[in-house]
Design a protein that fits this description.
heterotrimer, A alpha+beta (499), B mainly alpha (100), C alpha/beta (494), B: 100 residues, mainly alpha, Histone, subunit A, two-stranded antiparallel ribbon, 3 helices, 33% helix, C: 494 residues, three-stranded mixed beta sheet, 15 helices, 11 strands, globular
Chain lengths: 499, 100, 494
């Protein structure tokens, strides 16, 4: 239980949160028609006769959408239902040409599962927490209405209509905005690992309906919940919970009651408002879609789904800290996004091969490079960085130069800059641009002697026990060498001379 | 179970069929006759009986994920889709303004 | 030269193939009959040019010695429930007024591919809801038949009333029908023609305006069994666009027709013998048994214990599905839009649907909406689907004792228009013998069995096992050969 509390006039309240996440399934064509799912097409250009609900049109399900839902279910270790059905949810709206949405109410394809959100002290999540997932079902997305194109008309675009969605319904297991945020991030990460959803919240590929209720701390009963629809970012999910919990507490304490209703979030005003006044008019009259037979999955299909699952975030993270010996922080950072771990793993393999060392040995170096050094350089170059030059081979070659002591960390960055701008070979750059550090003990030796001779008092102090001065001598020597000396060689020589 | 005028009005509204008082009143006995007659289904002992799902044994086929594989079920046919629209507007379907 | 419009599918196809006459001559002859029969109101739209175009293509193919299709040179009527590309398709409803589909239904496509041509779009009960063809927005279809006792206009049956009238009045040698709860068999029986409802899933539903998806099934209506076998062969086939389509080869039903029923058992369901049964219907049923016995079959008594509940179950399931299937008619993308001054979106829906749907459609949409609504779903819909399971089980049990079932098609001969239109329930009861096979998805047909005292046709129904259209048509053929039905209506309309 998190320690998130809402301070009311009458005491402390806690919040109970459940999320219904709608995730667009990654597929080429729609759930029940062959029209494309590509984002950003001309209005109604990706609409089939089926999507437009022409008379006599019939749905035929897309195997890939079913497969992705099953793989997602497997990724959250959920019950996969070998028998499921599609039901019709009946209501009238301009974005719903059929007059019903094909969904799954009675027999969803995926049953109970769960995911784990990581501990985050600062966010008030003291330890990892398991969030239950009640179900995942597959359904059709609706079309889009535009209200600002004409003074008296709204315009209907059906391009999105019929695109496959997974509705991932959590249990009411979250008790703070931070937990809900962590849940959405983790879910998004899993979906992206699995490849079942691109997780692009700006394009609407993931939206959440946020169910919020409040109760007095310690009360065993759940309060009446409200559902805030179509929240499209993690930040907004957290804001909705804060606002809605506050609103409900204030309402109850003023003697009012929370009404079970659908609400909308207005990000500009940072408030939720009631969406449909006529809630009683909602009676969806669900019944099994008679155009579709029961969906029965055989073992071969399920096996293929399972076999095609990649290593998932939790397992990967455990492997990074265990086998690769990375810090918790680095492991968490590297595994958060698909692109990051993909880059890391490619470079790791390449670096291990070029350096002739095991992955475990070079992992920390590669992780630091991937997480901080490389992004820093790329950022500083801005548009000058030509990312086609950012190959794993080039990156690994730089790491090899560092590992061999041929170049310093600073030189490595300079070489990387040139690589990104020009695509030249790191070895050649180090050679021709004078970006190599001096490991010639003779030259270094001479400079050290000069430094020691110029600072007899400091030498005295050091020998008297002031260890900290060692850094001073290193710095002076390096300065004399114009930064191009191998610090390790300086260290060794200094230690020998100072005794 | 039987319906009164208020219930019929509610059903008509749910079904989005506008009905005047007279029509509602006419519907009440008609619907009640039919409902009273179908009520006899309640006599049948259906314990342990599964509701019908597929009338002829058949399983749901899944199609391949290919865009516009068949022009009859694919997209890219905006003109056809809009050809019968009462109020086509710049490639959209026009409807009375919706206030959300 | 013989009157070409007296010929059926097989005869036309044969004559065209042999060169006795051209397909164009056939099309012209039927076009002329269609044009002269407007009093019957069988067609919503006539398409004489389409019939000629198809005929010319067949004549040209024949001249080029190309292989001709199974329906080559046969002009047919198309029930206006099938979407026809470029030709108005309305389901006989105002709400689809002016709708011109940019697509062709699979079944009609198959027929054109087999060489058939289209005479026009046939009238029907609105959205196929009705048993008398009195619910069409385009007016009643009038049966070509008249009772000897009265000049009252008679119902051609429904919902495929335009089809039954067109075939029996020789406006078309054959027509498509659809059967949801008897809509092929009952009108066939009323007009002295043959109609076959195949196994659910045999004919694709793609492009057929939906009434009740789990029941709707297209089939042929023609003069005799052979013609139906030919036409069904052209209509049927697996369609990947319809999830409920049967992925089975289409047998050559025509080639395998065989009226010898030796070794076959014909079941007589005792529950179909109802109190107060019409004596003429009962006599016709007895006659049917005798004919089938004569054809070599053994007659056995069977029981279908849940028969009584079929009609009430049907009147929950079909309206429930229809209430949802008809939600798409909302005035947004096609068809009628009624937009009262200042109306919002939801008002537009309500006004459009009030204006566009007829009374019977509204009634069924309301019933369907009610039985699916919160709190009633299990008591009505789930219970009805359970009863449906029991009805299907009844048939499965019965078919352990017999190969086909013989029953009357209808509880009476054709009634007069207006007789039942004020009483929905008595209208529904007309399908009492037809509905059980629909609920179980089984193949069934109606074949003419004779005339009543007052000179009106009666049909006998054969119901078979799933996929056994052959057995059903063979038994139908045995009756046909013995009934020798040759009566036809007087041509009072032209």
């Amino acid at each position: 239980m998190s320690n998130y509390r809402i301070q009311g006039e009458t005491g402390e309240w806690e919040v109970v949160i459940g999320l219904e996440v709608h995730a667009q399934v990654t597929s080429n064509s729609k759930l029940f028609s062959g029209a494309s799912t590509m984002f950003g097409a001309e209005p109604n250009a990706q609409v089939s006769l089926i999507d437009a609900a022409m008379p006599g049109m019939l749905p035929v399900p897309n195997r890939e959408c079913i497969r992705q839902a099953v793989r997602t279910g497997m990724a959250i270790e959920a019950q996969i239902n070998k028998f499921s059905r599609f039901d019709r949810k009946n209501y009238f709206y301009a974005d719903l040409p059929q007059g019903y949405q094909i969904s799954q109410l009675y027999h969803p394809i995926v049953g109970e599962g769960s995911l784990v959100i990581e501990a985050d002290e600062k966010a008030g999540i003291p330890q990892p927490k398991t969030i239950g997932i009640e179900r995942i079902h597959v359904e059709q997305d609706a079309g889009k209405l535009m209200h600002d194109q004409h003074p008296t008309m709204s315009y209907v675009d059906l391009n999105r209509c019929g695109v496959a969605l997974m509705e991932i319904v959590s249990m009411p297991h979250m008790t703070s905005p931070a937990e809900a945020g962590a849940y959405v991030r983790k879910l998004r990460s899993i979906l992206r690992y699995v490849g079942s959803c691109d997780g692009n919240m700006e394009e609407g590929s993931m939206r959440a309906d946020v169910n919020v209720s409040v109760r007095k701390v310690g009360s065993p009963e759940l309060g009446t919940r409200t559902e805030t629809k179509n929240v499209n970012s993690v930040r907004f999910v957290m804001a909705v919970i804060e606002q809605e919990a506050r609103r409900q507490v204030d309402l109850i304490e003023e003697g009012g009651t929370v009404v079970q209703e659908t609400r909308l979030y207005d990000p500009d005003k940072n408030e939720t408002r009631s969406m449909r006044s006529k809630e009683d008019a909602h009676d969806y009259r669900y019944f099994p879609d008679p155009d579709l037979l029961p969906l029965e999955l055989d073992d071969a299909f399920l096996e293929e789904c399972r076999a095609s699952l990649p290593e998932l975030p939790d397992a990967k993270r455990a492997r990074y800290t265990g086998e690769l010996g990375l810090s918790d922080y680095n492991a968490a950072q590297l595994t958060a996004e698909v692109e990051t771990f993909a880059r890391f793993e490619t470079l790791l393999a390449e670096a291990a091969s070029q350096l002739g060392k095991s992955e475990a040995v070079v992992a920390t170096q590669v992780a630091n490079w991937t997480l901080s050094v490389a992004p820093g350089v790329i950022k500083s170059l801005g548009d000058d960085a030509r990312m086609e030059n950012n190959t794993a081979a080039a990156n690994a070659a730089i790491l090899k130069l560092v590992d061999a002591g041929t170049v310093s960390g600073g030189q490595a960055k300079e070489i990387y800059e040139i690589v990104l701008k020009t695509g030249r070979e790191p070895d050649e750059i180090a050679e021709t641009e004078g970006l190599k550090q001096q490991s010639d003990t003779g030259a270094i030796d001479a400079e050290i002697d000069k430094v020691l001779a110029a600072n007899p008092d400091k030498v005295e102090e050091y020998r008297g026990g002031k260890d900290k001065l060692f850094g001073f001598f290193v710095g002076q020597t390096m300065k004399a060498m114009q930064g191009k000396a191998n610090p390790q060689v300086i260290n060794e020589l200094l230690k020998a001379k100072l005794g | 179970m039987s319906v009164d005028k208020q219930t019929v009005a509610k059903i008509a509204s749910l079904a989005r069929i506008k009905m005047g008082d007279e029509e509602l009143e006419r519907m009440v006995p008609e619907l009640n006759n039919i409902l009273a007659w179908v009520e006899q289904l309640g006599e049948v002992d259906c314990s342990g009986v599964e509701p019908m799902t597929a009338v002829i044994p058949n399983t749901l086929r899944l199609r391949d994920d290919v865009v516009d594989a068949d022009p009859l079920t694919g997209g890219g046919i905006r003109d056809k889709v809009l050809a019968n629209a009462p109020a086509p507007e710049h490639g959209f379907f026009g409807v009375p303004k919706v206030i959300e | 030269m013989t009157d070409l419009t007296e010929l059926g599918v097989a005869a036309i196809r044969g004559g065209v193939a042999k060169g006795d006459f051209t397909a164009r001559e056939v099309a012209e002859a039927f076009n002329a009959n269609v044009a002269a029969a407007s009093a019957l109101n069988a067609f919503i739209v006539t398409t004489p040019e389409k019939a000629l175009e198809a005929a010319d293509a067949v004549d040209a193919a024949r001249a080029a010695r190309k292989r001709l299709g199974s329906m080559a040179g046969v002009p047919i009527g198309m029930k206006d429930l099938f979407a026809t590309k470029g030709v108005q398709t309305t389901a006989a409803s105002h709400i689809l007024g002016g709708f011109v589909p940019p697509y062709e239904s699979t079944v009609s496509s198959n027929l054109w591919a087999a060489g058939a041509g289209m005479l026009g779009k046939l009238n029907l009960d609105q959205f196929a809801m009705g048993s008398s063809n009195e619910t069409s927005y385009f007016g009643n279809v009038i049966s070509p038949w008249r009772s000897r006792e009265s000049n009252a206009e008679l119902a051609p049956g429904g919902s495929s009333g335009g089809s039954s009238t067109a075939v029996s009045a020789r406006l078309a040698p054959a027509a498509t029908g659809t059967d949801t709860g008897g809509s092929i068999r009952q009108p066939a029986a009323f007009t002295g023609i043959t109609g076959v409802k195949p196994t659910y899933g045999r004919c694709s539903r793609w492009g057929v305006v939906a009434f009740a998806s789990s029941l709707d099934q297209a089939g042929p209506m023609a003069r005799d069994i052979r013609d139906c076998a030919i036409m069904l062969g052209a209509m049927a086939g697996f369609d990947p666009k319809d999830s409920t389509s049967l992925d089975l080869p289409v047998p050559d039903w025509e080639a395998a027709l065989n009226a010898d029923l030796k070794g076959k058992k014909v079941g007589i369901p005792r529950e179909y013998r109802m109190d107060g049964m019409d004596a003429e219907i009962e006599a016709s049923w007895e006659q049917g048994k005798a004919w089938l016995r004569d054809a070599g079959a053994e007659i056995v008594d069977i029981s279908l214990p849940h028969t009584k509940y079929a009609l009430p179950a049907y009147y929950i399931i079909a309206p429930a599905e229809a209430s949802s299937n008809l939600a798409r008619y909302d005035g947004v993308r096609y068809g009628l839009r009624d937009l009262p001054e200042g109306a919002g979106l939801q008002d537009m829906y309500a006004a459009t649907r009030a204006e566009g749907f007829g009374d019977e459609v509204k009634r069924r949409v309301l019933i369907g909406t009610y039985v699916l609504s919160a709190g009633f779903y299990d008591a009505y819909y789930t219970q009805a689907q359970k009863v449906r399971t029991l009805i299907a089980q009844d048939f499965a049990n019965a078919f352990e004792q017999c190969d086909v079932i013989l029953a009357p098609t209808t509880p009476s001969a054709a009634f007069a228009l207006g007789d039942k239109s004020d009483d929905p329930l008595s209208m529904y009861l007309n399908d009492v013998f037809a509905v059980p096979a629909s609920l179980a998805g089984l193949p069934a047909l109606s074949v003419p069995a004779g005339l009543t005292q007052s000179g009106l046709p009666l049909g006998l129904q054969i119901i078979g096992k799933a996929f056994d259209e052959q057995g059903v048509m063979n038994a139908g053929l045995a009756i046909e050969q013995r009934a020798n039905f040759s009566a036809k209506p007087d041509r009072w309309w032209a």
